[in-house]
Amino acid sequence: MTFDQFLPVLFWLLMGLAMLVYVVLDGYDLGVGMLLPLGQGDAERDTMVSSIGPFWDANETWLVLGVGLLLVAFPKAQGVILGALYLPVTLMLLGLILRGVAFDFRVKARADHKPLWNRLFFVGSVLASVAQGWMLGRYVMGLGESAADYAFSTLIALTLPVSYVLLGACWLILKTEGGLQRRAVVWAKRAWPAMLLGLALVSVATPLISTTVRERWFSFPNILALLPVPLMSGLALVALRGLLNSHRIVGAAPGEGKLCWLPLTLAISVMLVGGLGLAYSLYPYVLLDRLDVWQTAAAPGSLKILLAGAAVSLPAIGLYTVFVYRVFGGKAKALSYA
Questions:
Q1: Is the pLDDT of residue 338 over 70?
Q2: So what's the pLDDT on residue 251?
């Protein structure tokens, strides 16, 4: 494979990386938004919002990067994909706008208006999560129009928000203390079986509906080489559930709570392994069974210019993200604006 032939593959990998990082990072703060109504009192809800406050803008940068790479690197695919997903994309953007507006207004609004902005923050989080799940399901099935394709999209539209809720609960275990941290453990325990069921159903439904996926995963010797993928996900989920019963993640006494970071790490590992499995299922297609990377990519000369830009922007976004997480590490503080 020449360098010109490899360029479309490279941009496909960069686009996939950006979207995977977005799902992991913005997933937990969408999850916190969906958990907001369960907080006890304004002070606790303020702490929940404060835990994601410094990060959520940086998290959404990865979505902009992923969609931007689709637009400029695969111009022949973006019209087909975004055109078919016009309505859910609009709903997702509406949800993200609601979240952004509510995030600021809930702090500065009068006390009698604050519950309204809390509800809008919750609604925006649910709307964005469900829309993303629906789009992911439609995309994985190559924008198919059969009843099975729509049923699969509905399944993903339910499973992805539940996964976000689990990520959000694990984030709160890491970032909070006291009663809120203990309640976050309870929320994680409740979300865990729903996520497990959803992932199991998705894992069964995907090869049943897609012949391409079935042949890649269940042909011999692929099935032996790929067996570690579901095993790693399963072990991480089992370890996560066992850890939720441990005093080592909740700091009620000296020496306890030292492993509060581990539930989130395990939940993220499940998402990462799932993302790698999805990438294997889709390659080399930008749209499964319809458009591959070479059919839809921009001209090699254009991709080389774009690569120079990506070589600057991608590390810059990555370093900025790392910087934000280092600066605002530790437990969440009370939410306030000067």
A1: no
A2: 67
